[in-house]
Design brief:
Distance between the termini of chain A: 37 Å
Organism (chains A, B): Halosaccharopolyspora lacisalsi
Subunit structure (chains A, B): Heterotetramer of two alpha and two beta chains.
Subcellular location (chains A, B): Cytoplasm
Helix content of chain A: 25-40%
Order of helices and strands of chain A: EEEHEHEHHEEEHEHEHHHEEEEEH
Number of strands of chain A: 15
Number of domains of chain A: 2
Largest sheet of chain A: 6 strands, mixed
Oligomer: homodimer
Protein name (chains A, B): Arginine biosynthesis bifunctional protein ArgJ
Pathway (chains A, B): Amino-acid biosynthesis; L-arginine biosynthesis; N(2)-acetyl-L-ornithine from L-glutamate: step 1/4; Amino-acid biosynthesis; L-arginine biosynthesis; L-ornithine and N-acetyl-L-glutamate from L-glutamate and N(2)-acetyl-L-ornithine (cyclic): step 1/1
Strand order of the largest sheet of chain A: 13-12-11-14-10-15
Radius of gyration of chain A: 21 Å
Amino acid sequence: MSVTGPAGFRAAGVPAGIKAGDARDLALIVNDGPHDSAAGVFTTNKVRAAPVLWSQQVLHERRLRAVVLNSGGANACTGPEGFQDTHATAERVGEALGIGAIGVAVCSTGLIGQRLPMEAVLPGVDKAAAALEGSEQAATDAATAVLTTDSLPKQAQATHPDGWSIGGLVKGAGMLAPNLATMLGVLTTDAVIDGDALDAALRRASRTTFDRIDVDGGTSTNDTVLVLASGASGVSPSHEEFAELLTTVSGDLVRRLQHDAEGATKAVDITVRGAVSEDDAVRIGRVVAEDNLVSTALFGSDPNWGRIAMALGRTPAEVDVGKAEIAVNGVTLYAGGTPVAERDSVDLSGRDVEILIDLHLGEHTATILTTDLSHDYVEENSAYSS
Amino acid sequence: MSVTGPAGFRAAGVPAGIKAGDARDLALIVNDGPHDSAAGVFTTNKVRAAPVLWSQQVLHERRLRAVVLNSGGANACTGPEGFQDTHATAERVGEALGIGAIGVAVCSTGLIGQRLPMEAVLPGVDKAAAALEGSEQAATDAATAVLTTDSLPKQAQATHPDGWSIGGLVKGAGMLAPNLATMLGVLTTDAVIDGDALDAALRRASRTTFDRIDVDGGTSTNDTVLVLASGASGVSPSHEEFAELLTTVSGDLVRRLQHDAEGATKAVDITVRGAVSEDDAVRIGRVVAEDNLVSTALFGSDPNWGRIAMALGRTPAEVDVGKAEIAVNGVTLYAGGTPVAERDSVDLSGRDVEILIDLHLGEHTATILTTDLSHDYVEENSAYSS
């Protein structure tokens, strides 16, 4: 059910003609209340798209009634005119729903540096408003309308025994093509929870989920994850309970992103443990995830741990090469400063790969989800916009 | 002439049987003096190969009589045994030349995590010592023996009107395959110059040459650049003159590395100007160079400046997106926060690509040399060690 699973939400996904052909490319998600608390996390890129600037602004009071999302154009690096386009889109949603534009967040994904075809976007908003439904199909239509090179809609939902739930949708081809692979996520809940608690829970959940998928280090100009709370269940969970379930649903969505990364033939989990800090563990996981030589070796089903050791050594994190251990799919290949097993003792024939780096220096752990680097990645990304 | 161009040097490159087949894989470069000042710069990777640890140690007094280099194995992550192998190699060179091992630097390149076949290396040292010559052919043999996936030997030389010269050889497939693409460089000069001045000149030259080629962000466990001075010309250049010529020869070698990067179809110069500091300019140039989405777009001959803007925004450097300009091959595509020309007005059909990013914030400039990311890169690096 995803975003329409929790009570109080309707959704739609329609073909507005932003993309060529008749693919769905505009989604609308509406919170019918009674409450309208909301929170968001956004790209850390200094180059932020117009919809990011807008949504950060309207979230100031931590209230949202609706989110409009489009694929087919990122509306990034489009100057004041691009910002006006975002504003006009929010205004049109407001008119269609009888609410103020200030209650409408906007998300866009697609090619950077081109204006959106507003002659398609604005009628598309009306069309989506007319199609709003609380059905499962409507949620799937919305999840479909935000896709770019993704191969399938990605949704998740979890229900608490106390009678409230969290649903969500996400798009992103795992940063495999950042013009396209902006991560956009919308989570909904019918729990009763105020904006500040929602914000804290989203930041906590993101830290170990949305922030820990890293396919090629690209940070989009448009990355946005929003959470909207309707309060329609009438149940007020504890902050702890809410944050836990939000982390579960976010983790589920992120796993779907990893598995749908375009061009990838491997789903790779890099776990770093024994670090002196969680930051160090994340830093090392990321540098290994982003290393093209590790990624291409995995594409070749080669457990080339020397490349992992090399990547390990170029982080600012605390590392003692004499203590570190590297294991791939359960086989320890390097320990105590020397090789301890032959590379061919590792089976890399399957899709799932687990890399374990134990630094033996401290108590901190982090897992980064990534993929391999394949011919299809190069093909996809060299051919996309031309 | 390269390393044997300056007076006082002999070289050899022989097939020792470290690699399969009969390719040359062991090189020896000897400084016959009268002086033996030397300096070196090494990888910043925390995981340093045995030959790096050894060479850093023997350079303590800034004197070297010889350098022995091998391809076919990096001797990295090989523990104390690997260090003993390096030590034994230096000892053998010392015996063959009648000098102390402390005067012998060692460089290795190849797969990480495997011991070297010492039964091939040690007789190879004797063979190389017997083959030492001051000829041009001997220098080319040495430049050939250090190659891995490089397609051709890379040498350079420049002579000062006052009668002294600097020669050099380098290997590296431009970090395109870091197990192989260790950058090893040896520079020779017959100028009269002491170790401290040599060290300062090498650091100065490296900063704008060897440190500014970045194909995929990989920093090898084995990167080493050495400079040896024989004093055989009898001429003492000023420190300024020497550093300038060293920078010229180093720049020439680095350009050869860029053009020989395996799998690359484009030679890309990224110039960042108008930065508030040189560090900022370098940081931005590097992040753009390492961005897979920029690199794959270039492989597709697509001047996708939106990807450059995205990469720009994810550095810690000071950037104002409203002021920055991006030009590709002379065509300004982005300025004042908006697109200013169509992408198809840029001709990317040739091999050479110039990306100019003007931040309009300060007076500092840097150029980073890189390449595109091609199918051949993926092929080369997924297939190499298996």
